[in-house]
Amino acid sequence: MLSDTLLGTLLGGRYRLDSRIGAGGMSTVYLAFDTVLERPVAIKLMHRHIASDADQLERFRREAKAVAQLNHPHIVTVIDAGEEGRDEDDGLGEVTPYIVFEYVDGETLKDLVREGPLEITQALAYAIEIARGLGAAHERHIVHRDVKPHNVLLTAEGRAKITDFGIARQLSQESLTMDGRVLGTTDYVSPEQALGQPVTGQSDIYSLGIVLYELLTGEVPFTGDTPVAVAMRHVREDVPDVQRLRPEVSAATAAVVDRATAHDLARRYPDIPSLLAELEEALAIEAARTGQATGEVTSVLRSLPLGARRRLPWRMRHPARWVAGIALFGVIVALVIIAAAGNTHRGTGVASGVSAKPGLVPVSLAQSAAHDYNPFGTGPENRSQVNLAVDSDPNTAWSTAHYYEKNLKKTGGTGVGLYLDAAPGVIARQIELQTPTPGFGVQIYATDHFDASPPYGDPTPLSARGWQGPFGADASVHSRERIPLNTSGRRFRFYLIWLTTLPPGGELASIAEATLFR
């Protein structure tokens, strides 16, 4: 193992190792100082005796490449990576690879749960944040494979950030293993991973289910004399009913744990979006039961989709307005604020600053009217953000995934987009798009009937799927763009905003607000 004699060493000509944070089988993590940007960072430095093993060196390099692709508020950010070439005399070995991460000054989720079970709403809020981070990784076809509370850092504000993708791999790559050892921590290992079977995103879902069980009960479901014994219990036994140890847990929360940890992959959640939907619903139910929410729970509650938020008491959806209504204006003014909040926070499909013009009237839409659409790609396109395109707030936005090739060829088709459900139908004459990433190209299509959930990767063209159009000329979207639509007076229910090109030199495109006009 690397010794503390390395303290003070300058890596890459800029990162000074100041103190050791922790160590593992492959690497040591140091608190370091970036002398160029003058900020603290965390550096994972591979052990020199491990670096001499070609397979382990490749695993370490692969981690750097994998996590460098990820940019998400619930994933620890990779800042830099490199390899230091030194002489044996200075203790670093011939080649010592390292990864530079943002420094998260806080405890781990494991530190927190060691103090005892978390509040039910707090446990669910952290599970949601972890799931959102894993969802971003899965969209890049990266499976973490070692989800556990030790690998979740908590910021000073209480936000959860996933770290240590040390055994993560991309589904398109061959697995690298460690001479008969099962990769992952056996307290949280999925049955298929314990048996050495192919590992997919469903394995991360199982491990997250175990993490949630521990957050709710204060203990892991299985123990044993050896790691192998624990792994075999995951293979042979069902996870105990969480309500037996925590009776106050709702049936909705218990059902999430049960399905996430199902041995049968056909019964386990198939993907992160399906898990997230039920986690968010469970959090809304638990918060409504307790009537209280503090800290990070409040932040997560504010980010819930409309369907889940409707389960919350009004005062929890809008706590500031609740206090103001009681203190200042009384019952009558509070009712007025409720009506206003119904438009502002539920989404109307009409952005602020948008008004009727001669012959054109903005169409009001529910916040649930927007849906991502990526039939030619490999999975959902930031589905959790799509309601932001019709939330009446131009400061929030739905974005495509990152396309690092700076084009949309990754979709396997002609583009990607989102569609608006204008039920029961409307004769749209224009659509206005607001964006913080101007310069991308769009086409507008419409239909009354189509398959809303086709299999991903299906090459069937849009016209054969039921979409008519495009209506109007192809448009290059500026920061605020009005696109005329000529539907020949036909009424349609669904309107597709189909992105055909990214902004010049950009890796993603965003839509802050989409407003239809009739």
Task: Give the secondary structure arrangement, pairings included.
Elements lengths: L9 E2 L3 E9 L3 E8 L4 E8 L1 H4 L2 H15 L9 E8 L9 E8 L6 H5 L6 H20 L2 E2 L8 E3 L5 E3 L6 E2 L20 H4 L6 H17 L9 H10 L5 H4 L5 H10 L11 H19 L4 H8 L3 H4 L4 H4 L1 H26 L25 E4 L24 E2 L16 E11 L3 E5 L6 E7 L27 E2 L3 E5 L7 E10 L8 E2 L1 E5 L1
Antiparallel strand pairs: 1-2, 2-3, 3-4, 4-6, 5-6, 7-10, 8-9, 11-13, 12-19, 13-18, 14-17, 14-20, 15-16, 15-18
Number of strands: 20
| Uncertain stretches of 5 or more adjacent residues | 87-93, 170-183, 336-349
Beta-strand percentage? 15-25%
Main sheet specs? 6 strands, antiparallel
Total number of helical segments? 14
What is the residue-mean pLDDT, rounded to a whole number? 82
Rg for CA atoms: 25 Å
Shape call = globular
Distance between the termini: 69 Å
The strand order across the widest sheet is 1-2-3-4-6-5
* Residue share in helix: 25-40%
What class do helices, strands and sheet pairing give? alpha+beta
Describe the protein's architecture and organization:
It is a single chain. By secondary structure, this protein is an alpha+beta fold. It has 14 helices and 20 strands. A six-stranded antiparallel sheet has the order 1-2-3-4-6-5. The chain has a five-stranded antiparallel sheet with strand order 11-13-18-15-16, with no helix packed on it. A hairpin with a 3-residue loop joins strand 1 and strand 2. Mean pLDDT is 82; it is low at 87-93, 170-183 and 336-349. The N and C termini lie far apart (69 Å). Helix 4 packs antiparallel against helix 10 and helix 4 crosses helix 11 (295-302). The protein is globular and about 75 Å long.
